């Protein structure tokens, strides 16, 4: 059973993307040619170094351990950095993964590497939360699992609302 408080995923808004790119081009035109070329190159270098192309991205492999005899709950938390596919601006925050192990435990560094790998795709926070929940649920086969991501969105802070706030998304799964 899946319980989610995330908003439904929507297709990329073409008008919004054109508006954003037009503003970027307008800014580049106001710069000197050298500044514009340098800024565009640095931006592309940053994005290409950080993001994984959708057609070559592969789900990470987890270091699974036998949970036989383990009694307790596993809790892992860390930072996330994502890129909004609607606005091409970042969001950042924290994740918290809590699970009651089934047959497997996992090396804690595997969890943070997996989260980082999913963050390298341009995903809405809601999609990131859902995909991580499904990934860990399928691979760990836990009795209970909950993932929560709390993030600040620059598309919201720099855009029309122009104020700081954070958004939480939850995915909870359990076996019956």
UniProtKB/TrEMBL annotation:
Pathway: Cofactor biosynthesis; 7,8-dihydroneopterin triphosphate biosynthesis; 7,8-dihydroneopterin triphosphate from GTP: step 1/1. It comes from the Bacteria. The keyword Nucleotide-binding does not apply. SUPFAM superfamilies: Tetrahydrobiopterin biosynthesis enzymes-like. Keywords: Hydrolase, One-carbon metabolism. Its EC number is 3.5.4.16. It is an enzyme of class 3 (hydrolase). One of its GO terms (molecular function) is GTP cyclohydrolase I activity. It catalyses: GTP + H2O = 7,8-dihydroneopterin 3'-triphosphate + formate + H(+). InterPro entries: GTP-CH-I_C/QueF, GTP_CycHdrlase_I, GTP_CycHdrlase_I_dom. Residues 79-166 form the GTP cyclohydrolase I domain. PANTHER family: GTP CYCLOHYDROLASE 1 (PTHR11109:SF7), GTP CYCLOHYDROLASE I (PTHR11109). This is GTP cyclohydrolase I.
